[in-house]
Structures are given as C-alpha cells and as structure tokens.
Specification:
about 400 residues, alpha/beta, Rossmann fold, four-stranded parallel beta sheet
C-alpha cells in the first residue's frame, strides 16, 4: 500500500495507527518522544521505583546511590503499588502513543521532505525503555533522529537526565554513529501549546457552578523540585512560571491564579508553596471554589489521577472548599498534537542541533561532564562550558 493510499485509509477509517501499520515505507526521520514513563500495571511498580531511585541525576544520594536507591525503592513499593492499583495503572504510555501517532500524521503533511516520520516512545524508568527504542530504530533503518522531550519545561532532573541517559545508552550499545541527532529540549511558551492549555483550563472552569465561576482560583500545580537542585541553577521553575502566565494571558486573566508545587518527598526543603498547603490556606481564608490545573504534564498519570483527584480533593473538602475541580489533562487535546507537530516541523526546517541556546548553558553549579552534550549531532554543536575550556586550552598551548 503506497503512502497516499495509507493516508486515505487513515482518513476514511479514523485510525492513524492502523493505517501506518500497513505502510511498508521505511521511516526517514525518527521522532523520539522522551518521558519518565510510568508503570502501566501494579507488577511494574517495583522495577520502576528501583530505576528511579537509582538515578543519581534525579534523586541524589551520593556515594551510596547504588545501595540506598534500591533500599528506598523497596520501602516505598507497597504504598505506591496501592496507589497505582487504585487508579488502574499509569496511562502515560497509552497517551504518548496516541499523541505520537497523530502528531506523525500531521508531520508527514507539514514536512514531507523529511518524511515518512515515525514516533518512538522512549521512557526513562518504564517500558519501553531507551534501549528498546534505540534497537527498534536501528532495525527500522532510521538514520535521522529528533530527541523530543515531552516535558515542556526543562529540568536537569527530567529532560536533562533523560538525554544524558540516551547518550550513555547509545555508547553502551555501540550505536553512537548510527543516527544523526538533534533535540527539542523545551517548549514552555509555544503559542499552540499555550492555546491547548488554555482550552483545558476553560473546560475545567465550565464545570464550576456559574455563581462561583468568576471567583474560582485557578491553581496551577507542577511537580516540585528539591531546593538544592533549584539553587544549582535549574531552569525549570522559571519556565513553569512563564507557562502559567501565558495561559492566563490567553484567557484574558479571567480568574485569580496561583502556581503551586506537588509530589515532594523526604525531609529536605522543596520548591513551594506546596499544593496541599495552599489548599488549606485558601480554605481558611474562606475560598469556596478551586480549579486544579496540571501544568507540567502532557497526559494523565499518578500525579493527576491519584494526588490531585483523590488526595488533594479530600484535603480541599476538609479545608472547607466546597467546589474543587480539576482541569482535564491534555491527553487527547487536538491543539496539543498540533503543537507537537508544529514544533518538530519547525525544528526540522531550521536544521539546528538544538532548538534553543539554553541547552548550551550548563547550570552554574553543574559538575556533570555529560550535561548539555549531543552525540553525533546533525549540525555543529558544543556547549558553552566545553567551548570555553577548549579556548583556554588552546590559549595555554599557544603561549607555551
């Protein structure tokens, strides 16, 4: 079945994934959709946590990482299994594949010269893992690849960790020269992404009884970070703030709003205010209506389905907030998929190794030599730290 027939079949039957399954055309460009992932079933929780707590780039336990990480994971497994059991497992793989298939369909239309394209789901701690994605790309005959972070906001603990692991896996598998890489490292204020978020916020507000709607506080909630990561110069918090402001600007600042942070663990200081504590404070002030908005997530997962929908809803009710709603996650939002396709098409058209200059800039407190690198980049790329080191070495050699 040729490409035109494949597309026609997709339009006729409304199933992009099924249509692409019949295509025998080798992908010219891989779009590697990178995320943390999540256990789709309860038995997947233990290995997920072990990988998570063993990753020193996201949870820093020092010299005893390989010992303490698995121990902490084992202690937390029972509780987390209960949570995933209550929500029926994480749907993040389902939604990533859903978004990827539809994004690729649009991308083939927007950028035919770099097509056909194929998306590869690439998770850091859950199946399909990075190794699986890379080996499938090799089997498919891919030579050009875009590492597309599904975190709209860059953090060393999320996008940074995932990219560093990608480069390590390429070398471990002997595939460092197999693909030419470029990266989309962040997209916090992309116009269509902002429109997608604004639409979901409006859908949430529409659920609030009309007499409370205008006074409903829009509570953006993002995954928190340890302050020691923030203080090293991590750029995540500022980018989340930029998204929240842009979304409310898109909505003409229809409601009062606040940005809060969730999912912190352990005794060390984390970025605040905490989502739960903010709910208690607003309840004590007399607020009766709140709309929680998961701002840093592109789909539902445990932070939305369990933390917000169950835990924070109970805390809001206990605080006297009678109307607690949650804006729907982006999931199947057509504007999100359009934004993803636009991002990749624009990126491919420019031909750069990285969309932003920010990726060239290491955090001032960074000592990880892997950070801000690209293996076998499609265009010349060097991070600023490495450039300055090279210039200093050259100057020293010239004066010797």
């Amino acid at each position: 079945m040729n490409r035109l027939l494949t597309r026609a079949f997709a339009r006729t039957n409304g199933s992009v994934g099924l249509a692409r399954a019949f295509s025998t055309e080798a992908p010219k460009t891989a779009v590697v959709m990178m995320n943390m992932g999540g256990p789709a079933t309860v038995p997947e929780v233990a290995p997920f946590l072990k990988r998570l707590f063993s990753d020193g780039e996201i949870i820093q336990l020092g010299a005893f990482q390989n010992v303490l990480g698995p121990l902490i994971a084992a202690r937390r497994t029972g509780k987390i299994e209960e949570q995933y059991g209550e929500i029926g497992g994480s749907p993040i793989r389902k939604w990533t594949d859903y978004q990827g298939e539809r994004m690729i369909h649009q991308l083939d239309e927007l950028s035919p010269e770099t097509g056909p394209h194929k998306h590869y789901t690439c998770f850091r701690y859950a199946d399909p893992l990075t190794e699986e994605a890379l080996l499938q790309m090799k089997e498919d005959g891919v030579k050009r690849a875009v590492a597309f972070s599904q975190y709209p906001h860059f953090s060393c603990t999320t996008t940074g960790s995932s990219l560093n692991h990608l480069w390590r896996e390429l070398k471990r598998l002997g595939l460092e020269d197999e693909f030419e890489w470029s990266i989309i490292d962040r997209w916090p204020t992309h116009p269509t992404f902002i429109k997608a978020m604004a639409r979901r916020v409006q859908l949430g507000l529409d659920e609030v009884p009309e007499e409370f709607r205008s006074r409903t506080v829009v509570q953006f909630s993002a995954h928190s970070l340890p302050m020691k990561v923030v203080n090293k110069g991590d750029q995540y918090a500022g980018e989340v703030c930029a998204t929240a402001y842009a979304v409310m600007q898109e909505l003409n600042f229809s409601n009062p709003y606040i940005l809060c942070w969730q999912s912190q663990v352990g005794p060390l200081p984390w970025l605040g205010p905490q989502t739960g504590e903010a709910l208690k404070g607003f309840g004590s002030q007399g607020h009766k209506a709140m709309l929680a908005v998961p701002i840093a997530f592109t789909s539902d997962h445990i932070e939305t389905l369990f933390e917000i929908d169950i835990e924070y809803k109970e805390e809001a009710q206990e605080a006297g907030i009678e109307h607690f709603y949650r804006a729907p996650a982006l999931n199947e939002e057509p504007l999100l998929i359009q934004a993803q396709a636009e991002l990749v098409a624009s990126h491919l058209a420019h031909g750069r190794a990285c969309d932003t200059k920010q990726y060239q800039l290491n955090c001032p407190g960074c000592f990880n030599e892997t950070c801000r690198t690209i293996v076998n980049p499609v265009a010349p790329f060097t991070n600023m730290r490495s450039s300055y080191k090279a210039e200093k070495a050259a100057a020293k050699a010239a004066s010797a």
